[in-house]
Amino acid sequence: MTSAYDLAAQEEKGTPFVILAAILAAVGGLLFGYDTGVISGALIFIRQRFALTVLHEELVVSVALVGAACASLAGGRLADYLGRRATLLATSIIFVAGALLCALAASVTALIAGRLVVGVGIGLACSAVPVYISEISPAPARGWMVSLIQLAITLGILGSYIVDYAFSGSGSWRLMLGLAVVPGLLLGLGMIFMPETPRWLTERGREEEARRVLKKIRGDANIEAEIRDIEQTLRLAKERGRWADLLEPSVRPALVIGLGIAIFQQVTGINAVIYYAPTIIQAAGIPSASGAILATAGIGLVNVVMTVLAMWLMDRVGRRPLLLFGTGGMIVTLGGLGLFFHLPGRAGASAGVAVFLLMAYVASFAVSLGPIFWLLISEIYPLKIRGLAGGTAAGVNWAFNFLVSLTFLSLIQAIGPGDAFWLYGVLAVASWIFSYRLVPETKGRTLEQIEAAWHDRLRSAA
Ligand code: BGC
């Protein structure tokens, strides 16, 4: 379907105001990344302070993942119900409260409770941030703008490595965990001054407000056409989304794609590398802890730099070529890593090969499954269920994150690192085939055009 909405009329890169709004919302990703990385360093000292049992230790780490998975599911509904912006404000309050609880915890129980609250904050952020950014961005810039969330995640991970390293001498785990308050506050303070999305406002019948916001975020562009397009999409949808709507024939293909990419993003092993890089590097033959930590920081840096490259490419070459190219790189590097760990007598100099392969693997992820998952779940769903469906995909992503990070150490004990990497490699092949066959190109199309295409497909299939 051709839309009345004139792409050329939109500012190619977005107005400064919309860029600021996207950056402030993306701070939600910083919470996610920082927390992902910081706990491993803090745990060493928490263990000493509270004489943790293994069960306590596992709970301190994983309760946040469980909280995030559940809150992502609920957060999507909340973003549809309360609005994207209000959900982000609530996220900030919850996250700051959780970080303070952790930093001031006088007992293990308080710490575990704090971690659960932090997880809830992260989960809410994961479901609301991509939708918020996607709905305010001009179509030609949506790729890089939504990918800001992935950039924030990778910066958060890198920042947490640096903080862990800086405080490792003093062992101030309370500061390590408490510093998360900073991005939490930044998100909340920023969102106070940012608007709700025009799409959500229109859906709620608040067209005048939607018009005002559009004027602000689109500059001189033709906003009437955009309003018309949103209204037309809403007329097609008639009523607000419910869980049952996720199974409607016109929504099902998008649902399958979102859930599939959510699962593949995790089962191809990224967090085995992100969480356990020092362990893998030591197993590859670099025995010193400082060498392993340095190589890990290098991996964190590669992750950030390649995400920036992906953002630059996303709206130029499109999502599909990047996804297929990057997943291809993951297959090759995982194959290489598996081979490396199967070779007899590797040590010393050759450990550098493993570090190189790990970096190349993370680089391949950073240009493909990393940002593109968050982008797709913000753009492929119809407006009436966008929050709900995106939140469901984020929740499933967290559940598989939990599964992979929980099983990685047992997996390498049971089958060895070589076979473990090959297993992730085989799953990466499955991911490539899945993407090749099912993932549509969304570059340059408005959210309304993407939604109309699903209906067209259904009609032509009937
Ligand atoms: C994933 C995270 C992962 C991160 C690494 C994100 O897209 O969802 O699980 O830790 O990328 O950069």
Please give a structural write-up.
This protein is 80% helix and 0% strand. The chain has a single domain (11-194, 237-461), classed as Growth Hormone, Chain: A, CATH 1.20.1250.20. The protein has 18 helices and no strands. The radius of gyration is 22 Å and the shape is globular. Residues 1-10 have low confidence and may be disordered. The chain has helices at 16-50, 54-81, 84-104, 108-136, 142-167, 173-178, 181-192, 198-203, 207-218, 223-237, 252-267, 270-283, 289-317, 319-342, 351-366, 369-379, 386-438, 447-461. With 462 residues, the protein is mostly helical. Residues 36, 150, 153-154, 265, 270-271, 274, 303, 370, 373, 397, 401 line the site of beta-D-glucopyranose.
Total domain units = 1
Reported by name, the CATH topology is Growth Hormone, Chain: A
Span between termini: 17 Å
- Assign the CATH superfamily: MFS general substrate transporter like domains
Which percent range fits the helix content? over 70%
List all distinct small molecules, including ions and cofactors, that are bound in this structure: beta-D-glucopyranose
CATH architecture call: Up-down Bundle
Number of helices: 18
CATH hierarchy class name: Mainly Alpha
The secondary-structure element order is HHHHHHHHHHHHHHHHHH
Query: Which residues form runs of ≥5 with pLDDT under 50?
Result: 1-10
